[in-house]
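Module 6 notes. Inverse folding takes a fixed backbone as the condition and produces residue identities as the prediction. Think of it as a translation problem where the source language is geometry and the target language is the twenty amino acids. Below is one complete input and output pair. Work through it position by position during the lab.
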């Protein structure tokens, strides 16, 4: 029996945490089979909703046969693939509201092959359900600033699962919207660092879950990179599997290419229509105010002499929410009587600024921060049960956050505080500021969904 991740059976919105490995899996027919068998009944039961792209009977049969071949080839390639050492991008995360921590020179080491690989394609909706286990993943690197310390993270017996979008590029598939769940059975974190006073400290943490462990603050950043690595690996595998090796009938190949192109274009147009409503709603409200904050620092002003300096950041702002746009094609997954629609968003402009001053000093000016790389994950459900069509927001959250640059005015005699102030600004940006951004975007998208005519947009 094929294995499906639990959200293939239930509403994705119900899966907020890590995957429960005790969950029962079940197999479900692809949309091609359902449309072939029950298209008339679906239209009768749901007069307000019509799936926008219809699939003919001949192609539906070819896809059902081709999915078995496709699954077998992808599964064999994944099982034969053994990971090696891979360089990861730097990770910047907030240890708390006052401190940002940088992980750099990161390397992912995994020499164990994938186990229990299960692959279930649904070519009629251009997606691929996948699950597998990895024996051990080791991440090694440096942490802090100026070579302050080292960190190692070990994930043992990790169950990886999710549903991946597919897009057809010429004669081959490419993976997109990869967002997998990672559920390790054991998490070990070792940290070796030097305190400001020069004392070397070594600490080790062991847990049976990421939640509550030392790895939790940066785990989402880490798994985002895992997703990108797997996306590249899967795309390389798919490049060796042209569509004519999956569908034997040349007419079916031609028909499927046309169907896939029309489906992708229709789904993207629906998503863009929704974002048009969001941007219109925020037309005069893309600039938001962010909260003030205060930080005290001890500054050396002479040998053995410290001075307490109060740093005050006020009249903060963030922009621009109106620069939101879709960054990937749309992926759709069927969940019994509903569909989950997902894609990635970006803000083309992502800037923050404050008026700052130092208590007890005439020094004052502006500080600005710019986020060069950002990605938000968006998911909504399309419920076609009950004789209608209802959309509801499932998830809108920050996925990728990087290439952060902070511009700070000349501090004169307080120049020694610049790195700590920049760290504080970044910590504030990734903490409360981005929380406000997510909340504002979530409210705007939820309001847009209320104005979004589900059946009308999906039936055009």
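Target side of the pair, the amino acids:
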């Amino acid at each position: 029996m094929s294995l499906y991740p639990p959200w293939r059976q239930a509403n994705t919105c119900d899966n907020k945490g890590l995957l429960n490995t005790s969950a029962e899996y079940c197999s479900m027919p692809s949309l091609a089979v359902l449309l072939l068998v029950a298209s008339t009944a679906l239209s009768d039961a749901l007069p307000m909703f019509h799936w926008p792209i219809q699939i003919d009977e001949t192609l539906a049969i070819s896809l059902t046969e081709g999915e078995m071949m496709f699954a077998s080839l992808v599964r064999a390639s994944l099982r034969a693939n053994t990971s090696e050492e891979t360089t990861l991008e730097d990770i910047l995360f907030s240890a708390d509201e006052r401190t940002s921590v940088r992980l750099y020179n990161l390397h992912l080491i995994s020499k164990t092959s994938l186990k229990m690989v299960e692959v279930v394609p649904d070519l009629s909706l251009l997606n691929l359900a996948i699950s597998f286990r990895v024996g051990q993943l080791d991440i090694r690197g440096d942490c802090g600033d100026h070579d302050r310390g080292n960190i190692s993270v070990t994930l043992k017996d990790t169950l990886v699962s999710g549903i991946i979008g597919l897009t057809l590029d010429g004669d081959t598939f490419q993976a997109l919207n990869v967002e997998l769940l990672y559920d390790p059975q054991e998490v070990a974190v070792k940290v070796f660092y030097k305190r400001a006073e020069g004392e070397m400290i070594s600490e080790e943490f062991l847990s049976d879950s990421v939640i509550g462990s030392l790895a939790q603050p940066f785990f989402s950043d880490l798994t985002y990179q895992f997703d990108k690595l797997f996306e590249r690996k899967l795309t390389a595998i798919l490049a060796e599997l042209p569509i004519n090796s999956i569908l034997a009938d040349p007419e079916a190949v031609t028909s499927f290419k046309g169907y896939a192109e029309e489906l992708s274009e229709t789904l993207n147009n629906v998503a863009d229509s929704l974002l048009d409503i969001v941007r219109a709603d925020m037309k005069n409200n893309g600039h938001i105010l962010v909260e003030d904050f205060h930080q005290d620092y001890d500054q050396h002003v002479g040998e053995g002499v410290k001075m307490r300096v109060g740093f005050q950041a006020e009249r903060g702002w963030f922009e621009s929410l109106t620069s939101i746009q879709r960054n990937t094609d749309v992926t759709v997954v069927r969940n019994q009587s509903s569909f989950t629609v997902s894609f990635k968003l970006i803000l083309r402009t992502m800037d923050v600024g404050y008026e700052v001053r130092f208590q007890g000093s005439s020094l004052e000016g502006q500080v600005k921060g710019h986020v060069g790389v950002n990605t938000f994950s968006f998911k909504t459900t399309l419920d076609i049960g009950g004789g209608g069509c209802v959309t509801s927001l499932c998830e809108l959250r920050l996925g990728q956050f990087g290439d952060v640059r902070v511009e700070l005015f000349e501090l004169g005699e307080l120049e020694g505080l610049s790195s700590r102030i920049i760290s504080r600004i970044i910590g504030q940006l990734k903490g409360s500021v981005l929380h406000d951004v997510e909340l504002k975007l979530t409210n705007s998208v939820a309001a847009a969904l209320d104005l979004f005519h589900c059946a009308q947009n999906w039936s055009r």
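Reference fact for the lab report: The radius of gyration is 25 Å.
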